[in-house]
Amino acid sequence: MQAENGKEIKTRVFRVSEENFDAVLEEAAEIIRRGGTVAFPTETVYGIGADGLDPEAVRKIFEAKARPPGNPLSLLVHSREDLGKIARNIPEKAFKLMEAFWPGPLTIVLEKSDVVPAITSGSLPSIGVRMPDHRVPLELIRRAGAPLAAPSANLSGRPSPSSADHVLADLEGRVDAVIDGGGVAIGLESTVVDMTVEPPLVLRPGAIGIEELEIVIGPVRAGYQGAEAGARENTLEKRAGQKYAHYTPCTSVVLVEGEGDSVAEKLGELLESYMSDGQKVGLLLSEESAAFLVSEGLSGEERFLLGSREDPIEAARKLFEGLRALDLKGLDVILADGSFSAGGLGTALLNRLREASSLRFAV
Ligand code: TXA
Ligand code: MG
Asked: Which of 153, 176, 271, 323 gets the most CB atoms within 10 Å of its CB?
C-alpha cells in the first residue's frame, strides 16, 4: 500500500458526493486506521492526513511530501474534547480563540502531551492544533478515531493545493487515496498563532487577521515574512516551523508591491526589459493592472488574472492555482502584482506572494 523503497503506490481517487458520502468516508477512515495516508479538502487548502499519534503513519506523510524531517506537522481535531489528550497547560486565551474561531482557519500552537510522537511535532515541545470547518476531514477524524497529522497536500516547498488535481499533480503514486471534494473556500493556509508565548505570536497570517485575534485575546505580535523587521529578527531564528522554504513555484517570481497603477507601471517596465532580453514572461495580475498594461499596449505571453485589487478574498482563492498554472508554461520568469489591498486575507495574500518570490520591488 505504501511507497516503500521508492515503489509507487496505487493512489485511489474518491469523488465525494451527497450520495456516496458515508461509503467514501468509511473507506478513507479504514485506510487511516490501517496506518495509511489520505488527502482531502478543507476550507483552507487540501491536506494529506495520517494518524497523528502513530509515528509510522506520520513517517509516510514526510515520505510522500519529501518534507524535511524536523519541520513540525499540525494536528486536525474533530472536537474540543480531543484536545485534552494531545495538549496540556492550555491557556485561557487559547480557549477563547477556539470559542471564537473554531471550526475554522486558525491553527493554535499549544504545549504538547506525551502521546504526541516527536516525529509529529518535529521534536518541539509544542504542537499546532486546528478544527477544520469542513465536513470531510471532520468526519474522517471522527471515524478514524484519532487526530490527523495533516500538512498541506503538496510536495514540500511547492504551492499548497486548492484542488484535487493539484494534489494528484504532486502526490499521485505517493499517497494511498485522495478525496476529491471540489474547490476550497479560502485557498490559503490557516493563520498560525503560538499560544505558548506571551504575548501570543502569529507565525503565519491567514484568513483570520491579527485585528480579529486582538479583539478576542488582546495584544498579539506578528512574526512572519512582511511583518515589521523587529518582530522577525527576534523570532524567526527560533521558530523551527518557519525556517523552511514555502510556497515556491519552480519558475522564479518577481514581485512588485505598492499602490495601484504605480505597481502596474513598474510591472510594465519589467515586462519590457525581460522581453527585450528574449525571456519568456508570465504575468500574475489584478484585473486593474491587466487593464493598465493593455492600455499601454503591453501584454505578456501568458497571464493569469487574480481578480480585482479590492477583492483579496477572490485573489486568495485563485493564487495557488495561478502559480501552478503559470509554472507549467515553461516560462523564464513570473511577474507578480502586489497591488492588492492589505488587511485580513490581503495581508496573507501578500505574505504568500513574498514567500513565492525571489526578487521584490516596492514602488
Ligand atoms: O490550513 C492549514 O493549516 C492546512 C490545512 C491542510 O489544514 N495545513 C497546513 O499545514 O498548512 P502545514 O504543515 O503545511 O503548515 C502548518 C504550519 C507550518 O508553518 C508549521 O511549521 C507550523 O504550522 N507549526 C506546526 N506546529 C508548530 C509548532 N509546534 N511550532 C511552530 N510552528 C508550528
Ligand atoms: Mg504547507
From this structure: 153
Q: What distance in Å separates the CA atoms of residue 248 and residue 352, rounded to the nearest whole number?
A: 9
Residue 125 lies in a domain: yes
Q: What CA–CA distances, in Å, run from 33 to 25, 28, 50, 344?
A: 12, 9, 9, 37
Tell me which residue has its CA closest to atom 26 in ligand 1: 128
* Mean pLDDT within 208-225: 94
Structurally, the chain folds into a number of domains equal to 2
Given a cut of 50, whether residue 311 has pLDDT beyond it is yes
Is 24 in the same domain as 96?
A: yes
Q: Which of 239, 265, 298 is the last residue of a domain?
A: 239
Domain containing 73 equals 3-239
Atom of ligand 1 nearest to the CA of 241: 21
Instruction: Lowest mean pLDDT of 27-36, 132-141, 240-249, name the range.
Output: 240-249
Nearest to 157 by CA among 57, 48, 243, 50: 243
Best CA proximity match to 153, nearest among 50, 253, 242: 50
